[in-house]
Design goal:
Elements (H helix, E strand, L loop, with lengths): L10 H12 L4 E3 L6 E4 L9 E8 L16 E7 L5 H11 L5 E6 L2 H16 L4 E6 L20 H13 L4 H13 L1 E7 L19 E4 L10 E4 L3 H12 L10 E8 L5 H17 L3 E8 L9 E8 L2 H8 L2 E3 L2 E3 L3
Parallel strand pairs: 3-4, 3-5, 5-6, 10-11
Antiparallel strand pairs: 1-2, 2-4, 7-8, 7-12, 8-9, 10-12, 13-14
Helix pairs in contact: 2-3, 4-5, 6-7
Length: 335
């Protein structure tokens, strides 16, 4: 294992300490648990609180979206593991300003169990809590079984639109409506070329041969839909888009935002090569692009690969997506 570490068992704690030490004006710990982080200026009066959480190893997901115009707090689990219900509960206790809290998280068994329990515990604390679950990975379940899909990089759109709506002063029901609307209009698919090594394990979590790729692999190394020889960038993108486009479906005349997401070890140059083909395919289908994001939004430690997310926009989502936002990991001015 070749990583810059001290004690592998302290990997997450030391990482979180480093992030808060680097950005004390933006982020702070709540309670006595290093795994519970909120905005340094929170709770924000007059606003619905937005909380997320999930396993480490995916920066900037999840805590990278704690900031203005985005989320108010995050519970952080160990690598690829859900935070506990007790850790999740500390977040609404730290961000609630009396208008309720919306949990936004990915469709994974551990997260569902722990966020559900945390919601029940929040009721005991007299904090109104509701939830929105992201599930947009088209490779993880067929069309018609969207409730079984994983939540991956496309949750970015849920965060961004819900965060903008909350900043407008909307109530909990309206913020949830927007979050669910954004999630329903997103589809994602990924491809991977290499495994990852969880620090506490010390060896790759799976194997993939030299010159091979796996289409549809999940961000924890979950099996994809096909493993085979590495194709050209254009061929890979074409195969992925052939699955994404008919799934919603995206149609002629639609307007979309595109998220080209690197999984941790893919150069940005290669992401732009892939986006070149995405843009050509969308143009061929008479689908216009309103805004494109290229970079790392949901990684998997040092995995080589990328994912493509499309978010279909209407006037409401377009306006919310355009609003300013700022965190230590993401910044956007008004479009």
């Amino acid at each position: 294992m070749r990583k810059f570490l001290n004690d592998p068992e302290r990997f997450v704690d030391e990482m979180l300490q480093g992030i808060v030490a680097a950005h004390p004006e933006d982020l702070t710990f709540v309670a006595d648990d290093l795994h519970c982080i909120t905005r340094a200026d929170g709770p924000v009066r007059g606003k619905v609180g937005l909380a997320t959480g999930g396993g480490s190893g995916h920066l900037p997901l999840f805590l990278g979206y704690v900031g203005r115009g985005l989320l108010d707090g995050c519970a952080v689990g160990n690598v690829f593991q859900s935070p506990s219900a007790e850790q999740i509960l500390e977040v609404p206790k730290g961000i609630s300003a009396g208008r309720g809290v919306l949990y936004l998280y990915g469709n994974y068994t551990g997260d569902i169990i722990n966020f559900t329990l945390a919601s029940e515990l929040a009721e005991v604390e007299d904090i109104p809590v509701d939830s929105c679950v992201a599930a947009e990975d088209v490779a993880s379940a067929p069309r018609g079984e969207e409730g079984k899909r994983r939540g991956v990089a496309g949750i970015f759109y849920v965060y961004k639109c819900a965060g903008a709506k909350a900043d407008e002063g909307a109530d909990l029901a309206q913020v949830k409506r927007v979050a669910e609307k954004a999630g329903a209009n997103v589809r994602t698919m990924g491809v991977a070329l290499s495994p990852v090594t969880v620090p506490e394990v010390g060896k790759p979590s799976f194997t993939i041969g030299e010159g091979e790729m796996e289409i549809g692999m999940g961000i924890h190394g979950e099996p994809g839909v096909r493993r085979g020889p590495l194709l050209t960038a254009d061929e890979v993108v074409s195969e992925m888009m052939d699955t994404i486009l008919p799934d919603l479906p995206y149609r002629k005349g639609d307007e979309v935002s595109v998220l080209m997401n690197g999984l941790g070890a893919t150069p940005k140059e290669e992401l732009y090569i892939a986006y070149r083909k995405v843009s050509q395919i969308l143009e061929q289908h008479d689908i216009s692009v309103y805004r494109t994001y290229v970079g790392e939004f949901a990684t998997s430690l040092e995995m080589t690969g990328f994912s493509i997310s499309l978010c279909r926009l209407d006037d409401e989502l377009k306006a919310l997506l355009s609003r300013p936002a700022r965190s230590p990991f993401f910044e956007q001015s008004q479009l």
